[in-house]
Specification:
The protein is mainly β. Helices cover 1% and strands 43% of the residues. It has one domain: YVTN repeat-like/Quinoprotein amine dehydrogenase (Methylamine Dehydrogenase, Chain H, 7 Propeller), CATH 2.130.10.10. It has a 6-stranded mixed beta sheet with strand order 3-4-31-32-33-34, with no helix packed on it. The two termini are 25 Å apart.
């Protein structure tokens, strides 16, 4: 069980703070925002230095690892022998030594007819989620499944169909007993809520992305609470929209010009922070306490320069950290958007950074980890090239950093 810090920061009426590293149950960890405290992670590593173990992962996939109860859970697309098909699988590894505990086939994808993912995507990109002894795995238009932590299938649902563009990416979240995810494909994008116990569809809400010429997006929603009301904040084509998790009804929306939205929002100081599109991204700070279309009344500030297209942002105290896809990292005042520093890290970036005990951990696509000190002045603390392609985001659990590359999973920790 993840233990919260004794002192919690109340941010805009919703409790969000770094947590002590116990489990890492979903994309971006226990808070969904990449924050963790009181873990003594190294600031440098290599294929031999500060690596407890490295394990080859079968198949291909860019889902990030989650770690619960001493097990690491991943998804992957594994070739089916004698065919051109791919088995979409969930697997569990022992967090202590990296050995595979179980592997469960869930769906089969015919690569002859299936839409091909973009070069930075995969057939297994959404990150798993663990809650209350159950593992939820999602393969976009191919299907969603729930398993127990021993690998036994509880339910599968392959009836939520849509036409993907460039593959799948957004991960599911849990809210009030519902597994919620976006289905932003080639046309008629929507958001759906499944009964987490049975996998049956409970509600479906159309995106209403009428003005966007392209309808696809890949963002993971964020559950927040505003004035006692839970909201599922989900960026998509044309707009970021907040939905009521109970019935999928729209609460508020902020319009923008954009599609192929990837970063997960972050929340604090009574503001939702998000990035808007792929072609021409802008960072927006939005007050989530309105009703209906609040574009003109609730957008507090906007920043276009060095906005990320793919990596999610980090909110730590009063500072908002981000890195653009081309490697420009910046730290801005969360309340005003004023830039404290902007520095080129070198390389390209898709993985979302994390905050660990006063430090920001970035990971480049080329396989280099870059650690900087959190604060209003830029200070680099270490670089760690692995020379392996890395698009998945970190997990932190059991006093260690877990990193998935194109072929391997690493457990990184101090000696």
């Amino acid at each position: 069980m993840t233990r919260c810090l004794c002192v919690l920061a109340v941010l805009g009426g919703f409790f969000v703070s770094p947590v002590l590293a116990g489990d890492w149950p979903e994309f971006r960890g226990p808070t969904g925002q990449g924050l963790v405290e009181k873990v003594n992670l190294p600031t440098q590593w290599s294929k031999t230095q500060n690596v407890a173990w490295v394990q080859k992962v079968p198949g291909t996939g860019w889902s990030s690892p989650v770690v619960v109860g001493g097990k690491v859970f991943l998804t992957s697309a594994v070739p089916v022998p004698g065919t051109s098909d791919l088995a979409l699988v969930a697997l569990a590894l022992d967090a202590k030594d990296g050995k595979t505990i179980w592997q469960q086939d869930l769906f089969v994808e015919d690569t002859k007819t299936a839409p091909k993912p973009q070069s930075k995507n995969s057939h297994a990109s959404p990150t798993p989620l663990v809650h209350d002894g159950k593992l939820y795995v999602h393969f976009g238009h191919m299907g969603t499944a729930c398993l127990d932590l021993g690998g036994k299938v509880i339910w599968k649902n392959d009836k939520v169909n849509y036409k993907p563009v460039h593959g799948n990416g957004g991960s599911p979240i849990l809210a009030d007993g519902k597994l919620i995810f976006s289905c932003d494909g080639a046309d008629k994008p929507f958001v759906v809520g499944l009964d987490a116990a049975t996998g049956k569809e409970v509600w479906r809400t159309d995106r209403k992305a009428d003005k966007s010429p392209k309808k696809f997006a890949f963002s993971t929603p964020l559950l927040i609470e505003v004035k006692g009301q839970k909201q599922v904040v989900s960026p998509g084509p044309d707009a970021v929209v907040a939905y009521d998790p109970a019935d999928g009804k729209e609460i508020w929306r902020v319009r923008y010009v954009g599609y192929s939205v990837v970063p997960r929002p972050v929340y604090g100081h009574g503001l939702v922070f998000l990035s808007t599109s792929f072609d021409s991204a802008s960072v927006l700070a939005v007050k989530p306490d309105g009703q209906g279309d609040v574009t003109d009344t609730h957008t507090v500030w906007q920043k276009k320069k060095d906005a990320p297209h793919t990596p999610s942002m980090l909110l730590v105290g009063d500072e908002l950290y981000m890195v653009s896809d081309r490697g420009m990292a910046s730290c801005v005042d969360a309340k005003t958007g004023t830039v404290h520093w902007a520095e080129k890290l070198n390389g390209n970036f898709s993985a979302s950074p994390i905050y660990v005990d006063g430090k920001i951990y970035f990971q480049s696509e080329e396989g280099e980890g870059i650690v900087v000190k959190a604060g209003k002045k830029f200070e680099e603390l270490g670089r760690s090239p692995l020379n392996e392609k890395t698009l998945a985001s970190y997990a932190v659990a059991d006093g260690a950093l877990f990193l998935r590359s194109a072929e391997h999973l690493y457990r990184i920790q101090g000696q």
